[in-house]
Amino acid sequence: MQSLTNVVYVICRKIASEFLKLTIMKYLLKILTTTLFFSSTFLLLSSNNIKPMQKAFEPKIQVAILLDVSGSMDGLIEQAKSQLWNMVNTMGKATCSNKVSPQIEIALYEYGRTTNNVKQGYVKKINGFINDLDSLSENLFSLKTDGGDEFCGHVIYSSLNELDWDAANENYKVIFIAGNEDFLQGDVLYTKACSLAKQKGVIVNTIYCGNKMNGIREHWNLAGECGNGSFTNINQDAKTEDIPTPYDSIIYSLNDKLNNTYIAYGANGYMSKGKQVQMDLANVTVNKSAGIKRIQAKSSKVYNNAQWDLVDAKANDIEAIKKLDKKVLPDSLKNKTTAELEILVNQKSNERNTIQKEIAHVTIKREAFINAEKVKNTTDKNTAATLETEVEKIIRAQAKRFNMEIK
To answer: Domain spanning 60-238+383-406: which CATH class is it, in words?
Structure first.
């Protein structure tokens, strides 16, 4: 009897042990199944329902300048050189509805030069969208006129197709094409260019160099309908009136001080700093107004040289000095510690801010003086429309469509 009891006990114990193992396995299987379910559900939600973080909207003004460089356009090129800075200063005053200043990018094309590639419609991209204003000015000064065929539809289409236009509809994207001769020349119709302009949200403005009625006869008003743009005409041979003021020498002196606040770095730093001085001289050589307006632009946020100047680089990125490879510094700075460089850059930044405010203050006085002189000499007032006057007028009107205010 005792033996039978022992046998039953052993059998029951084995059964209980197997039952326990089975229960534990079922429990673990249930946990595993639940875990896999929730993991797959989370991954499904992540891939299908959770949208990736979108890049913050960056307001921009993108401008493409298309200039006729055929033989009769010397006056247009001279105006473009000297009046660039008024356009820059106008755009530099723009603010969006959220009080943010838009980034400004400018591209430059020439057309109508016989030495350019005939297969490309005698069109040449001088530079794509850049915010390096010294290089842009240098490129304008490099333009020379030469006889040739002016294919307006081709250059508009090329600029639309080749440039990196921003995709945001909220940004002001605009083309200014200036020249003369018949607008319908070439094998690329302006209608093809207009279609692409509307697709990309780019406004095309045409500026005829000469009499308005001649511009209409030569079809320059047609592209004014392209992308809700405008048609206007200018006297390309009109000269900028230089009125001497008691503030000119003060502004030039402040500009010299301003240039001394730049700390060059990088492979092209020394060359870029030299270019800055060269373009100061080149612009004032054209006329005094161009030189002063360039200095005015240099006192604003739109003039930024972070690619070669340590002060602007740090203004763009607070960690710029810490990230800097000291090998790219000039010899006089290579042995300085990071802390010493920070002190130097902060010092130059403070100096620059003070000088820029002084330039802005004196410039206001200079403009008031010039306006008063023009009132005194109304009979000598130059009322001819120029590239400067018409481009400023157009930018001010069109920027409002994009909730940008220009004061």
So the answer is: alpha beta
Buried b (16+ CB within 10 A) or exposed e, 314-333: bbeeeebbeebeeeebeeeb
The residue ranges of every structural domain in the chain are 60-238+383-406, 248-380
Residue with tokens 């490099």: 142
Contacts of 392 (CB under 8 A, 6+ apart): 86, 87, 90
Residues 77 and 27: their CA atoms lie apart, in Å, by 84
> How does DSSP classify residue 171?
S
What percent of the chain shows pLDDT beyond 90?
76
Q: At what angle do helices 133-142 and 269-286 cross, to 10 degrees?
A: 60
Give the Cα separation of 400 and 282 in Å (integer): 34
Question: Is the pTM above the cut of 0.70?
Answer: yes
* Structure confidence at residue 18 (pLDDT): 55
At 35-45, the pLDDT tens digits run 444 444 444 44
In contact, 34 and 41? CB cutoff 8 Å: no
The helix/strand/coil state of 230 is coil
d(CA 317, CA 315): 6
